[in-house]
């Protein structure tokens, strides 16, 4: 299972990039990963890819191998991880990024740049990598490789001690980065994908002790109040809402619901 985003991809530095350039970049980097997987597995592959940036309409479908299925479009109940279940051997996160506000990472945000400032689960600051990995852990699926900028590596490595990381670029600020030479990135993908596949049995799924309490800090009081209408949600203070459950799927759906509702309330 591959969940691919845009902000951590090589060659891109801002959301103002030309849409066709984004499509070419996300397709190019996915093809590099798939090529490395083919060599590492002898070509015996069944791959499901979640096109997970914005509305999920980024991949150039006709350029992908025949063995690849793609989840495309929006909305989806499990957004970046839709379609994942316990039948998968492993998952990879490609083109990922840091959480909002914690480091000067490339296009840092957590699901919604227009609504969400910070997310904590059981008192720990998390980004999309951690949240998506916990959902994968619910299905007992390990995350074997993550790629993105150096600030993503700096933030998330502690939570993924045995996962392979590929650094695609070095963040200067939210909308500026120093790109590594493309050939170096390609070669690192080949090496790290091979290591990830070879060590798949040694990489444990990410699991935290339930019950889970998620606290979401929104950008303004109107968004937080609107999100607090979700059944089971509690308004912690002017800009924070919380929700608890022993089932991480409920936590994930609450985060997605909050993101959507807060976005809809942006003019309130």
Automatic annotation (TrEMBL):
Zn(2+) 1 binds at residues 5, 7. InterPro entries: DppA_N, Peptidase_M55, Peptidase_M55_sf. Keywords: Metal-binding, Zinc. The active site is at residue 109. It comes from the Bacteria. Zn(2+) 2 binds at residues 5, 53, 97, 128. GO terms for molecular function: metal ion binding. This is Peptidase M55. It comes from candidate division WOR-3 bacterium.
């Amino acid at each position: 299972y591959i969940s691919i985003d845009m902000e951590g991809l090589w060659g891109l530095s801002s959301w103002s990039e030309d849409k066709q350039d984004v499509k070419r970049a996300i397709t190019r980097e996915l093809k590099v990963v798939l090529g490395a997987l083919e060599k590492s597995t002898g070509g015996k592959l069944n791959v499901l890819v979640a096109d997970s940036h914005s509305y999920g309409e980024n991949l150039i479908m006709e350029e992908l191998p025949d063995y690849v299925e793609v989840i495309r479009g929006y909305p989806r109940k499990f957004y970046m991880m839709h379609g994942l279940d316990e039948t998968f051997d492993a998952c990879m996160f490609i083109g990922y990024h840091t959480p909002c506000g914690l480091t000067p990472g490339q296009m840092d945000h957590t699901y919604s740049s227009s609504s969400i400032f910070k997310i904590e689960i059981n008192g720990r600051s998390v980004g999309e990598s951690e949240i998506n990995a916990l959902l994968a852990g619910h299905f007992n699926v390990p995350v074997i490789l993550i790629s993105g900028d150096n600030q993503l590596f700096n933030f998330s490595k502690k939570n993924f001690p045995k996962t392979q990381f590929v650094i695609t670029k070095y963040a200067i600020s939210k909308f500026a980065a120093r790109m590594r030479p493309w050939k170096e990135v390609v070669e690192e993908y080949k090496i790290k994908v091979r290591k990830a596949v070879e060590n798949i049995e040694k990489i444990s799924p990410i699991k935290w002790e339930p019950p889970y309490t998620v606290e979401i800090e929104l950008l303004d009081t109107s968004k937080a109040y609107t999100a607090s209408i979700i059944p089971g949600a509690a308004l912690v203070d002017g800009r924070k809402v919380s929700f608890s459950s022993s089932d991480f799927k409920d936590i994930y759906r609450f985060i997605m619901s909050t993101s959507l509702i807060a976005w809809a309330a942006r003019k309130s």
